[in-house]
Amino acid sequence: MTSLVALGDGPLFGLPLPELWFALLFVMLGTFLFLDGFDFGAGAIFAALDDDTERETVLAAIGPFWDGNEVWLVVFGGALFASFPSVYADLFSRHYLLMFGILGALILRGLAPEMYEQRHDPAWQRWWGRSFVAGSVLAPFLLGAFAGNWLAGSARSFTLVGVVVGVAVTLLTVVSGAAFLRLKTGRRLPESVARYGIAAVGGYLLAVVATLALLALRLPNGPDALLRLPVVVPVVASVALAAGYVVALRRGANLVALGAAAGLTYALVSVVAVVMYPAVDPATGATVREAIVSTLPLNLMSIGAALLLPLITTYFVVLYSAFSGPISAGEAY
């Protein structure tokens, strides 16, 4: 009992826990956008492949990973609820249509490849193939729209900022997906896969520029909020990462290209976090320190996170180690 009282006296070790949890939320979101992002991107590229063997190869490449990668979205939602419950309630209630759309797209993306494999009938596989593509494209687009509306403090489900950020996130998943497929399949997919990734990274940079321009017009003190070192550095780094991605993909350094795609993802998420801070919900003006839970549950959550997050990370290390390397010829979903 005494130890619980002590935990309620102040933050653990005097750490700035509200800010650490705010940063941790965006690390979790970035991890989901990267890991599940290359699954989404593979689904988008699936639409451009006509050969049945090539489509089976795409499904086999993402098969061991996609359902595990979605854990990070659950972790993000749970952490947001636990650390900033009022923000969770306000944000999700304002955008409940987007939430239902995201869940529907994720369900469709998960169900479609399972159904696709059940029958080798052209009409059946055409229908479920299109469903797989739709879920793979809609999920990142709606997630991006949600993030854009959150950042801009909009109460509407669809805004211009949300649409542009949705397009940016969707293109970013194609960037990751192209690198991942080249890494996992070698030369068994056509060279056009690399070209899709290169085109997508160019479109992504244009979408980022458009997003920054819209935010400069919409946010209070927009230009001043954006022309800060913590914002400028990741934006400039994104240009360098995009160039590195193109060079790596053309030279067949696919792991380097995938690493560049990861850097682009975390750079985007960091820009969103920096522009938003110190607010955690710009629509209501709630700041990180105002919206955080009280000291005792915050300390207990921090102890729990310190124990659980290494376990989750270890699971993913084991998963990706077990299925490392290119997939075998003829391997199926």
TrEMBL record:
GO MF annotations, alphabetized: electron transfer activity; oxidoreductase activity, acting on diphenols and related substances as donors, oxygen as acceptor
Membrane-spanning segments: 20-49, 95-112, 132-152, 158-181, 193-217, 229-248, 255-280, 300-323
Keyword Transmembrane: yes
Membrane topology: Multi-pass membrane protein
Compartments (UniProt record): Cell membrane
Domain of life where this protein originates: Archaea
Keywords assigned: Cell membrane, Membrane, Transmembrane, Transmembrane helix
The protein, known as: Cytochrome d ubiquinol oxidase subunit II
Taxonomic lineage: Archaea, Methanobacteriati, Methanobacteriota, Stenosarchaea group, Halobacteria
